[in-house]
Amino acid sequence: MYPPYYVDMYLARASWPSSNGKTYQSIYLRESYRDGDQVRKRNIANLTHADPKEIAAIELALQFKGNLAALGSLDQVHLSQGLSVGAVWTVAETARRLGIDQALGAGFAAQLALWQVLARVLEQGSRLSAVRLAQVHAACDVLGIQRGFDENDLYNNLTWLHTHQEAIEKRLFAKRRGQQKPELFFYDVTSSYLEGECNAFGAYGYNRDGKKGKKQIVIGLLCDAQGEPVSTEVFRGNTQDPKTFAAQVNQARERFGCERVTFVGDRGMIKSGQIEDLSQAGFHYITAITKPQIDTLIEARLIQMGLFAAEICEVEREGVRYVLRRNPIRAEQMAASRADKQATVEQLREGLSRYLDQHPRAKVATAEKALRAKIAQLKIQAWLQAQTEGRTLQLTVNQRALEETSRLDGCYVIKTDLPASAASKQVVHDRYKELTLVEQAFRTCKTAHLETRPIYVRTAEHTRGHVLVVMLAYLIRRELSQAWTSLDVTVEEGLHQLQTLCSTEMKVEGGGCCLRIPAPNRTATALLQALKIRLPDALPHTNTPVVTRKNLPARRKPR
Questions:
Q1: Could you give the 3-state DSSP secondary structure of residue 225?
Q2: Distance between CA 236 and CA 251 in Å, rounded?
Q3: Quick one: which H or E segment has residue 321?
């Protein structure tokens, strides 16, 4: 009895007469496989318009697929190492499963866009590196891309992606969710610094990467309740977070047709102006409030310090609900952080005191200034002061100020206008905490596997297209990560293992050639089975032209 994943591949021909007396024929590369007690079939490729020599080569390969040595002994058949096929086939099949290929559409531009997404998953780099990557992986054979494209084609393709971004996101949204409209969105922004000075969105602003003196761009990411990105937008680097919010509200209502939506954003994103925008659209919000706002509520006696505990508490006023909690673990972490800062200052004081003892001519005022500067740097001057007595440096802790500073350690308040009938206090709390899903997406896209930067583009259209490519690549990587979690394999390790699965190029004298795909090893088989992906036995193939800097068209437009 065959296992469920057993695959048999063959060429299927269909002929039919037409009204004009001609007979037409279609040729398909088809596979049949067992799924339990069912025998299923699907078409791998349409070979109707392929060269007859290539069709003959594929048919010959399938004929001897069980005995490759016998085929190699034939004088008219030559075997050589082919391109890597395991990783690119896996990533391409994952993209098809997610509906990314359908969202991009058909045509040469859509195929190039799909390759840019797959190349971002396989290896991060510039457009030229993606061209060279297509000479290592069997991208053209797997995707059916016309060979000979260069980096200029990929740069132009970024403009095509920007032009069609709204339609692509809308089709992908419909494909993934059908008629079910999500009622919860997470939204957050991040910044990505630039090495150059000429990007259209480049500007100096609040840099989350800690790169002072560098221009940046601001990226907004809208995710659904499962943390899956649905839309992305690029803003100038000096754009404040709340000013990016109105565009996302319009997208949820107009582009995706959502009528009942709750936006989840952090305390710096959803403020009074954004709450008004949501109210006018008929949407709800979940956000948090700052510590000064918590103090205001305490002074107004709307909430009391006794309500902050490990158990969630709720207070409602004028249709607005406040969900309160104290995280004991976070409170301990903040107390330990203050203790570490105080110990650092104390260590500096001891060093400066020893220096003053050993150098009688050293100025006490200079040492005191250095000690005060360290306290200010650590932002603990509210409760820790430095003073001198003779040539001795001393530290004084203001206990009352320290108690006031630590009063709200681990305390937070979540604010929402959702009625209790729509979401309990626990649900509101959990939804806000799930905002970390967007932060995880940002970490993956910016500094982990996908690496939004360095940004090798300058124009607004190319920048938006590049960020869209990274978002689509993140969907694929997220799917791979979830499937391989049980195998204790990272995405990088899994793709590296699959890249070692190379094809065998079979060339028939006087005929065409094809790529014969060998059986994967045990590790690769486990990776493929975790994704429920099957490799074909062979792929049609033509020789890949070498693209070098010499035969690339001259650059005429900014990147």
A1: coil
A2: 19
A3: strand 320-326
Per DSSP bridges, beta strands 77-84 and 262-264 are unpaired
Q: Contact at 8 Å (CB) between 251 and 222?
A: yes
Distance CA 77, CA 57 (A): 9
β-pair type (184-193, 262-264): parallel
Strands 7-17 and 23-35, by their bridges, are antiparallel
Query: Is 91:118 a contact under the CB 8 Å cutoff?
Result: yes
| pLDDT of res. 225 | 78
Instruction: Output the DSSP codes for 432-487.
Output: HHTTHHHHHHHHHHHTSSS---S----SHHHHHHHHHHHHHHHHHHHHHHHHHGGG
pLDDT digits (tens, 9 = 90+) for 82-128: 889 999 999 999 999 999 999 999 888 999 999 999 999 998 888 88
Contact 77, 60 (CB under 8 A): yes
pTM of the model: 0.74
Give the pairing of strands 23-35 and 513-516.
Answer: unpaired
- Provide the β-strand partners of residue 14: 26
What is the Cα–Cα distance from 141 to 57, expressed in whole angstroms?
Answer: 15
Cβ neighbours of residue 216 closer than 8 Å, sequence gap 6 or more:
191, 192, 193, 194, 202, 203, 204, 205, 207, 209, 237
For residues 231 and 103, is the Cβ–Cβ distance under 8 A? no
Residue of 169, 165, 161 lying closest to 257 (CA atoms): 169
From CA 173, how far away is CA 164, in angstroms rounded? 14
The H-assigned helical ranges of 99-136 are 100-104, 108-122, 127-133
Rounded Cα gap, residues 41 and 55, in angstroms: 20
Q: Are 219 and 192 in contact (CB under 8 A)?
A: yes
pLDDT per position as a tens digit, 309-340 = 989 999 998 889 999 999 999 999 999 999 99
Pairwise CA distance, residues 120 & 122, whole Å:
6
Residues 388, 364: Cα–Cα separation, whole Å: 8
Distance CA 29, CA 144 (A): 14
Using an 8 Å Cβ cutoff, are 132 and 179 in contact? no
Q: HSE on the CB side for 208, CA within 13 Å? A: 18
The SS3 of residue 149 is: coil
Asked if residue 218 lies in contact with residue 234, where contact means CB atoms within 8 angstroms, the answer is: yes
C-alpha 324/C-alpha 322 separation (Å) is 6
- CA-nearest of 84, 61, 168, 44 to 471 is 168
Distance CA 236, CA 246 (A): 15
Spell out a b/e string for 501-533, using b for 16 or more CB atoms within 10 Å of the CB, else e: bbbbbbbbeebbbbbbbeebeebbebbbebbeb
